């Protein structure tokens, strides 16, 4: 595969999706071939899984959530990410496997070894070239979620999670950052949109200009 694979991670309310759109627009304006996607929901099947598991009012078993997101990822990797990378595109995904480790692992309480087995099966070992984690205090993220415009971000089950849940998720992301500093970079997401955008551009520049 000759393309570049970049993922954006962060707890809900971190602003990562806004930064993804800004980065993609900037790179596209420079004539680079960029594909943006998301998990769950990056494929037609994934969109149906997203609706079924994020927008349902039914109680969802944690194991069902873990396996549904794995199914979404397997489809996503095989039919969108791998072909796009083979075609020398820059693929930027709003969430990927690290989200499963953080949300379903730490958040839902699954053992790390079990979660990592599921991740390995779903990804086939495909890892991002660069992951940006948009770090923000949990209380600030919850405040942002409470006032954000739902016309831009449709509410889902995750919006109703507790501060304790998001604290576990954030700590799991920081654990990944400590373990994989070359791939996984922490971005301070408490500044202005413009400040964060400049930081993101600087971090991505070297990767996208490599031969």
What does this protein look like?
The protein has 211 residues and is of the alpha/beta class. It has a single domain (4-208), classed as P-loop containing nucleotide triphosphate hydrolases (Rossmann fold). Helix content is 55%, strand content 13%. The chain has helices at residues 16-29, 44-54, 62-86, 97-107, 112-123, 138-147, 163-179, 193-208; strands spanning 4-9, 34-38, 90-94, 130-135, 184-188. A 5-stranded parallel beta sheet has the order 2-3-1-4-5, sandwiched between helices. The longest helix has 25 residues, at 62-86. The radius of gyration is 16 Å and the shape is globular.
Short description:
By secondary structure, the protein is α/β, with parallel strands linked by helices.
Please tag this protein with its features:
5-stranded parallel sheet; 8 helices
CATH homologous superfamily assignment: P-loop containing nucleotide triphosphate hydrolases
Helix and strand run: EHEHHEHHEHHEH
Architecture per CATH nomenclature, i.e. the level-2 architecture: 3-Layer(aba) Sandwich
**Count of discrete domains:** 1
* The first-level CATH class name: Alpha Beta
Oligomer: single chain
Terminal CA distance: 13 Å
Poorly predicted ranges: none
Please tally the β strands and state the result: 5
CATH topology: Rossmann fold
The spatial strand order of the largest sheet comes to 2-3-1-4-5
| Helical segment count | 8
């Amino acid at each position: 595969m000759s393309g570049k694979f970049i993922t954006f991670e962060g707890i809900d309310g971190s602003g990562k999706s806004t930064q993804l759109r800004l980065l993609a627009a900037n790179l596209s304006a420079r004539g680079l071939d960029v594909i943006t996607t998301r998990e769950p929901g990056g494929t037609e099947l994934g969109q149906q899984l997203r609706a079924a598991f994020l927008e349902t009012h039914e109680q969802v078993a944690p194991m069902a959530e873990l396996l549904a997101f794995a199914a979404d990822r397997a489809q996503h990797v095989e039919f969108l990410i791998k072909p796009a990378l083979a075609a020398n595109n820059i693929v930027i995904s709003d969430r990927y496997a690290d989200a499963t480790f953080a949300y379903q692992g730490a958040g839902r309480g699954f053992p790390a070894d079990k979660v990592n087995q599921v991740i390995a099966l779903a990804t086939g070992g495909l890892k991002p070239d660069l992951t940006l984690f948009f770090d923000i205090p949990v209380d600030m993220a919850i405040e942002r979620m409470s006032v954000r415009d739902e016309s831009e971000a449709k509410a889902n089950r995750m919006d109703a999670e507790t501060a304790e849940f998001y604290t576990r998720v954030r700590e799991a992301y920081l654990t990944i950052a400590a373990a994989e500093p070359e791939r996984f970079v922490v971005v301070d997401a408490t500044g202005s949109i413009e400040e964060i955008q400049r930081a993101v551009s600087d971090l991505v520049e070297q990767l996208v200009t490599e031969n």
